[in-house]
Amino acid sequence: MFEKKESCGLFGIFGDPEAVQKTYFGLYSLQHRGQESAGIASSNGENIECYKGMGSVSRVFRSGTGFLENLANPIAIGHVRYSTTGSSKEINSQPFLSEYSRGQVAVAHNGNLINAALLRDEYEAYGSIFKSTCDTEIIIHLLAKPTHVSKPDPLAHVLNHLQGAYCLLFLYADRIEAARDPYGVRPLCLGQTEKGAYVIASESCAFDTIGVKFLREIMPGEIIRLDKKGLSSRFFVTPGTVKPAHCIFEHIYFAKQNSTIFGENVHEFRKKLGKQLAIEQPADADVVIPVPDSGTSAAIGYAEQSKIPFDMGMVRSHYIGRTFISPEQKMREVEVKLKLAVVKEVVEGRSVVVVDDSIVRGTTTRGKIRALRQAGAKQIHMRVSCPPIRHPCFYGVDFPTKEELLANNRDLKQIKEFLEVDSVGYMSLDGLLSCAALPADNYCTACWSGKYPIPVDTTANKFSLEHHQLRMFDDGF
Question: Which of 37, 41, 258, 401 could pair covalently with 50 via S-S, beta carbons 3.0-4.6 A apart?
C-alpha cells in the first residue's frame, strides 16, 4: 500500500508557440511519477533557459510568479522527479543544464544507471567535478569528453556506455533528442499535435490533456531527433539483438490508467489481472473493495469474475499526493492515514476482499487492515494482483534491499500473520504474464523471480553516490 516508489516523468515538445505551457500541463498529467521536484528547460533556437525547484508542478510554477512566461519558447522539455539515485535536494532536480564544447545541453532522465558509480570514479580520477549526487549528471560528462565529441554520432556513442534503465530527453539549442535504453525497461511515447508539432512523454496520458495524437512508443535502443526538418530516427544498437525487458510493474502500479504503454491500455490490463486473481485466489466474501487508486481496476476485474459485489470501502483524499513519493517512512505512514479513509457502512459486519496491486514492506498495508477491523469488518481476505516481491530492483524502483521486503524469508502463513488478515492470496507469475499482450520473455520479472535481464555486478541504493562523495572527501581528494 503506497510503498512503491519509482523514478520520474518526462515531457518534450518541438516547434509549438505554446511549448512551455503545454509542457507544464504535460508534467501535471505525469505528476503521479514524481512530486519531489519539477523543472522545465526551453530554447528559442539559440539559447536555453531553465527553471526548476522542489515540490509539485503547480508549486514550482505557481501562478503569479512569471516563471512560465519567462521561459516562453517554441522548444521545451520538462521533468518531474522521484529520487532513485541521489537524495531529494534541489541540486539533484532536473533538467540538468550545462555547457560544453558543443554548446548548451539540458538533460532529463527517467530510470536508473547501474554503472553510475563506476563511471563517476573514472571521470573524477581524471579531474571531472560533479555538482550533484544524481546519476544523470554523469551523462553530461560523457557527452563533454573530447574523444566522445569527435565521434561521428557522439550521442549514440555515449549511450552505449550506459548500463541500466533509462529514457532520456536532450534539449540542445536547435533540437530535441530522445533515447530509450536497449531493453525498453521504462516507457516512452511519441505523439503529434493537430498542427504537426511532435511531442514525447513518459506516458500517453500526458497527450490527452493537450489534445495530442498518440503515434507510437519509441523503440528500445532508438534515438528520435526533432528539429526544423521534422522527425528522424536512428538506433544506437542493432534492432533485435537485445531481448526487451519491459518493467511490468509499470502496468501493475506506476502508470496512469488511461495510458497506453507496452502495447496495451493500463486499465484494461489491470482488470485482466483482477479476473485472473479471482480464478487463482477465490474467496467467500460479501464485498470486494480496492485500495485506491492503483488497486481499483484489478478489484473491478476480481468482482466481475467472482460475482461478488464491488464497492468503495476506502476513499482517497485527492489533496494528498501519492504517498510513495515521500522519502521518509514515518511521513509516508502519516500521509496514508490522511489519504485513505474507511467507509464504515460498506465494511461493517461483512466479509471483505481487499484487492491491492502489490505489497512491498507491508507496514502501511497492515495499518489499513487495522482500520478496517476498527470499522467492523467481520473477515478480511487480502488479494494481491502480482506475486510476492522477494528481490530488490536496480532499474529505477526504490525498494532496493531484501530486508525491506515483506515476502523476503516469510511464507504465506507468516505474511498473513504480519498483515493480520484472515487469508492472503497472491497472483502467480505465470498468471500475471498470461494477462500481458507481449510474449512473457519480453518483461522484466526480477523483483519476483530474482532473474535480472541486465547484469548487476554491484548492489547500490539511492544514496550510493552521496556515500561515494563522502568517501572521496574523507580520503583527502
Answer: 41
